[in-house]
Write a structure and sequence with these properties.
This protein is an alpha/beta fold. It folds into 4 domains: 200 residues, P-loop containing nucleotide triphosphate hydrolases (Rossmann fold, 3-Layer(aba) Sandwich); 54 residues; 167 residues, Rossmann fold, CATH 3.40.50; 71 residues, Orthogonal Bundle (Helix Hairpins), CATH 1.10.287. It has 18 helices and 20 strands. Helix 5 links the parallel strand 6 and strand 7.
C-alpha cells in the first residue's frame, strides 16, 4: 500500500512582488527520499527549500505535512541570540539524556561546543546549526549547502551519517561527489518549473542535456513554422483574406507562444588570459618549516612547482593550507628553509575569506575602484585583460543584471559574491592563479566552465579545495597536509591521493616491523597505484586520463560543428563564426594529438607485457 507523502506542495505561486519565482509548482517528498535539489544560482533553490520548511509563505497554493511529521531546516545564518555557547544552541530543546548526540556531532563536524557564540566564526556557527539539526532527528531534513565550511574529513563524516539514516532528506550542494554518493532522486529547478527524476545526481547532467536538446529541436521547428506562415501571410493573404483570418490568428498565436518561451540562462562568459610566460621553474621550496608558539604547522617540506602544474592542497581546516600557500608565494616567511620564486611571475589570488570585497561598496565600485582595473579618466569603464569595457557589460558577462550594478555587495548571495570575485580575478592578466576555496556556492554549470578554463589556462595553478570532484578534474599534483607538520606530495588528484595513501599505509607498517628498512625521504615520489608495466607513474596516470580528454574534445567538436552548420551564421555574426572556426581547428588538432599520445602509450605498455 502506497504511503502518504511526508510533504506535499500543490499549485504553489510566489512572486516577491515582481516576476514569479514559481508559478503552479507541485511536488511531493516521500518517506525515505534522498533528493538532490539542483538548479542555477538564483533559480530559487534556497527559496523553495524555505517554502518546504514553512519559513516562506507562498502567494497561493497549499503546503501539507503528513500528521506528526517534523521538518528540520539547516539555517545558513543561524540566529544564536540568547545562547552563550555553540553547544547551548546545538542542544536547545533536547532532553538531557540526548546530549551525547551533540557531542558526537561536534566531534564529527569539528567544532567546540564550549566556544562562546560571541567569538565563533560564521563557519563554526553553521556547523553548530548542522549539529542541532542532526541531534533533533526530524523525519525530513532540509540541507542547504551543508558541506560549506566543512573540511574533507567532516564531509566524510556527514556523508556516512546521511548514508546510514532512514530519515528523508533534500540536499542543495555544489559538491558533486557528495550528491552522487547520497541521492536517489533529483528535483531540478529550471526557469521557475520544477522537474523530478527518480534517479540520483549521477544521472542529472545527461537528463538536463536531453531536456535542453529536445527543447532546442522543438524551438527550431516552431521557428521554421512561424517563418513559413509569415511568408504565406505576406504573399497570399490579400487574395484570401476573408477565408483565412483563422490562419492569421494562428500565426499570431505562434508568435506569442515563441515570445513567451523563457530563454535558458546562459553560463557566465568567463575567460582567463594568461600574461607573459613565467620562467619554467615557478616555485622551489627546500626544507621549509613553520610554527606558531608550541604548534608546528609544517616541518622539513620541499616542493618544486613547474610552469603549467596544477597543485591542490588538501587537509583538515586549520592544518595550515593557506599558510603554506602564503609561504610558497612569498607572502609569509618560513621559520626555516628557503623559497625561490621563478622569473616574471604575475599572480592573481582568489581569497576564500572574500576580504577583497567591501560589503558596503556597490558592484560597480568594486570593479571601477580597483587600481588594477581602473581606466584613467573613465568612471564607467573597467580594464579587462588590457581592453576597456563598460562596467555593466562586464557584469552581464558574469550573469549580473543592470539593476544589480548599483546594489551593495552585502545584498549578494554566496554564489553571486563568488562570481564577482571571479570577475575581478579574470579581468587581470596572470600566469600564477592562487585559488583558495573557489568552488563554494558556485552552481554545477559555473563549476564546469571554471574547470574548462583552468584546463586551457597556460599558467600555473595553486588550489585549496574540499571539493573532491573538482580536485580530481583539475589537479596534477596533490599536497596532503596530514597534521603534526607533515605534508606529503602525491601525483594526480584526490582519487589518486587516496589510492596511493592506502598503499603507503601498508608500506609504513612493513617499515616499522623491519628496523633495517631504509627511510623514505620527504621529497621522494610515492609509489602510487599498480600501473602498466613499462610505464612511469606519470605515463600510467596519463594513459588512464586520455580517454576522458578525447571524449571531452569530441563532444566540444560536435557542438562547434553543430554551430557552424548554420548557413547564415557567417553573414549574421561574422566574429562568432571566425571564433568558432578557430576553436574547431584547435580542438581537432588537440584531439589528433591526444589520440596519437594514447596510441604511443598503449603500444609502450603492450610491448612491455602490460
Amino acid at each position: 500500500m502506497a504511503r502518504a507523502p511526508l510533504l506535499q506542495l500543490s499549485d504553489i505561486s510566489l512572486t516577491f512582488g515582481g516576476d514569479p519565482v514559481f508559478d503552479g509548482l507541485s511536488l511531493n517528498i516521500q518517506p525515505g527520499d534522498r533528493v538532490a535539489l539542483v538548479g542555477r544560482n538564483g533559480s530559487g533553490k534556497s527559496t523553495l527549500m524555505k517554502v518546504m520548511a514553512g519559513l516562506v509563505e507562498a502567494d497561493k497554493g497549499d503546503r501539507v505535512l503528513s500528521p506528526g511529521t517534523s521538518v528540520g531546516y539547516m539555517q545558513q545564518e543561524p540566529d544564536m541570540s540568547g545562547f552563550e555557547t555553540l553547544g547551548d544552541f546545538a542542544g536547545a530543546g533536547l532532553d538531557p539524556s540526548e546530549a551525547y548526540k551533540v557531542e558526537m556531532a561536534s566531534e564529527g563536524l569539528k567544532f567546540d561546543p564550549a566556544r562562546p557564540v560571541a567569538t565563533a566564526s560564521g563557519g563554526e556557527r553553521r556547523r553548530a546549526a548542522l549539529a542541532r539539526l542532526w541531534a533533533e532527528g526530524p523525519e525530513l531534513m532540509l540541507l542547504d549547502e551543508p558541506t560549506n565550511h566543512l573540511d574533507i574529513e567532516a564531509i566524510g563524516w556527514l556523508e556516512d551519517q546521511l548514508r546510514e539514516t532512514r530519515r528523508a532528506f533534500v540536499l542543495i550542494s555544489h559538491d558533486r561527489a557528495f550528491l552522487r554518493a547520497l541521492t536517489r532522486a533529483t528535483l531540478w529547478i529550471d526557469r521557475g518549473a520544477v522537474r523530478r527524476q527518480e534517479k540520483g545526481f549521477e544521472d542529472f547532467e545527461a537528463w538536463r542535456d536531453k531536456v535542453w536538446e529536445d527543447e532546442d529541436v522543438a524551438r527550431h521547428k516552431l521557428d521554421r513554422k512561424i517563418k513559413s506562415e509569415a511568408r504565406w501571410a505576406v504573399e497570399g493573404i490579400s487574395a484570401r483574406r476573408k477565408r483565412n483570418q483563422g490562419r492569421v490568428r494562428a500565426l499570431a498565436a505562434l508568435r506569442e507562444d515563441r515570445a513567451s518561451q523563457i530563454r535558458r540562462q546562459g553560463t557566465a562568459a568567463m575567460a582567463l588570459d594568461s600574461g607573459p610566460k613565467s620562467g619554467r621553474k615557478v616555485i622551489e621550496a627546500a626544507g621549509i618549516a613553520k610554527g606558531f608558539g608550541a604548534r608546528t604547522l609544517l616541518k622539513d617540506f620541499s616542493l618544486t612547482v613547474m610552469r603549467g602544474d596544477r597543485v591542490a592542497f588538501v587537509g583538515p581546516n586549520g592544518v595550515g593550507k593557506t599558510t603554506l600557500i602564503g609561504m610558497l608565494t612569498g607572502e609569509i616567511a618560513p621559520d626555516r628553509g628557503e623559497v625561490k620564486l621563478g622569473t616574471n611571475l604575475m599572480p592573481a589570488i582568489f581569497d576564500q575569506s572574500r576580504s577583497a570585497l567591501d560589503p558596503d561598496r556597490t558592484l560597480w565600485d568594486s570593479l571601477t575602484l580597483d587600481p588594477g582595473m581602473r581606466v584613467s579618466g573613465e568612471a564607467d569603464q573597467v580594464m579587462v585583460r588590457g581592453q576597456p569595457k563598460h562596467v555593466v557589460g562586464y557584469l552581464k558577462d558574469f550573469l549580473f543584471d543592470e539593476a544589480q550594478a548599483r546594489a551593495p555587495v552585502r545584498s549578494l548571495s554566496g554564489g553571486e559574491k563568488a562570481r564577482l570575485l571571479l570577475a575581478r580575478l579574470m579581468a587581470k592578466e596572470s600566469n600564477l592563479l592562487v585559488l583558495d576555496e573557489p568552488t563554494n556556492d558556485l552552481d554545477v554549470e559555473t563549476l564546469d566552465l571554471l574547470q574548462e578554463l583552468l584546463d586551457d589556462y597556460d599558467g600555473t595553478v595553486l588550489l585549496v579545495s574540499h571539493d573532491r570532484d573538482f580536485i580530481d578534474r583539475v589537479a596534477t599534483t596533490t599536497v596532503a597536509m596530514e597534521g603534526d607538520g607533515r605534508a606529503v606530495v602525491y601525483a594526480g588528484g584526490w582519487s589518486d591521493y587516496r589510492a596511493q595513501r592506502g598503499e603507503a599505509a601498508t608500506t609504513d607498517k612493513a617499515v616499522k616491523s623491519d628496523a633495517s628498512a631504509p627511510k623514505v625521504k620527504q621529497d621522494a615520489k610515492p609509489q602510487g597505484q599498480a600501473r602498466k608495466a613499462g610505464l612511469s607513474f606519470t605515463e600510467s596516470h596519463r594513459l588512464k586520463e586520455l580517454p576522458g580528454v578525447m571524449d571531452r574534445l569530441g563532444a566540444e567538436i560536435a557542438k562547434l560543428e553543430g554551430l557552424l552548420s548554420d548557413a547564415d551564421l557567417f553573414t549574421r555574426e561574422p566574429v562568432k563564426f571566425r571564433k568558432a572556426t578557430e576553436a574547431l581547428t584547435e580542438r581537432q588538432n588537440a584531439l589528433a594529438a591526444a589520440e596519437e599520445e594514447w596510441l604511443t602509450l598503449e603500444e609502450k605498455a603492450e610491448a612491455s607485457g602490460g
